[in-house]
Amino acid sequence: MPLTHRPMRLGPLENNSYLIVCVATRETAVVDVGFEPEAVIDAVRQGGLAVRYLLGTHAHYDHAAGMRTVQEAVGGEYWLHPADRPLLDHLAAQGAAYGFPPAEPPAVVHDLADGQRLALGEETLEVIHTPGHSPGGVCFRGHDWLWVGDTLFAGSVGRTDLPGGSREALDRSIRTRLYPLGDALQVFPGHGPKTTLGLERLENPFVGEHVRLR
């Protein structure tokens, strides 16, 4: 298998962080570290991995607060869609609103763009802009795997009642950007178990093909 990954469920909100690894080169992308960055750092070091990217599916506190700590320990360039920069700029305030400790984002932020392809060793990750949960929400596709952050869950979707959220935009992102990629794609969300696009298209009570936004 040209790509592999390691999911890690971390923190009080049971966030899924991921290490996406090119098998041939050990070059690695770290996706969404909010809590327990030390666990991610240990996994990188124990695996002998070379971190090239720190990728943010979006900039909510529970997906971004640990990125700077990881970067300072094992390196990597931090990438985020520019529409979520306002959220990142208020990372500490986000945390304070829920009683979490202060956090600082990486000092340098590289902009992701829809359709962009990021070279990872001998492989590539495709960026898919999927606004709705947040304005700059993105998913990353590698072969038949899709890392979706809080855009789509097994049997659910991301909440849209936070600043910048839009139920209509989320519905459109899932139906027009993700479902056309094919039923076989495995989906790895920011919380909860993995699923497939086909299963969600058929059965998801929010964005299944039998459901229409009211």
How does this model look, in words?
With 214 residues, the chain is α/β, with parallel strands linked by helices. It has a single domain, classed as 4-Layer Sandwich (Metallo-beta-lactamase, Chain A). The protein has helices at residues 37-46, 61-64, 67-74, 85-89, 91-97, 167-178, 197-203, and strands spanning 3-10, 15-22, 27-31, 50-55, 77-80, 109-111, 117-120, 123-129, 138-142, 145-149, 152-153, 156-157, 186-189, 195-196. A 6-stranded mixed sheet has the order 1-2-3-4-5-6, covered by helices on one side. Strands 7-8-9-10-13-14 form a 6-stranded mixed sheet. The longest helix is centred in the C-terminal third of the chain and has 12 residues, at 167-178. It is globular and about 45 Å long. The mean pLDDT is 97.
Provide the CATH architecture: 4-Layer Sandwich
What shape does the CA trace take? Answer: globular
Q: How many domains make up the 3D coordinates?
A: 1
Full CATH superfamily name: Ribonuclease Z/Hydroxyacylglutathione hydrolase-like
**On the 0-100 scale, what is the average pLDDT?**
97
Largest sheet, if any?
A: 6 strands, mixed
CATH topology descriptor: Metallo-beta-lactamase, Chain A
Q: Can you give the helix content as a percent range?
A: 10-25%
Structural class: alpha/beta
> What's the arrangement of strands in the largest beta sheet?
1-2-3-4-5-6
Helical segment count = 7
Strand content is: 25-35%
The unreliable regions are: none
CATH top level?
Alpha Beta
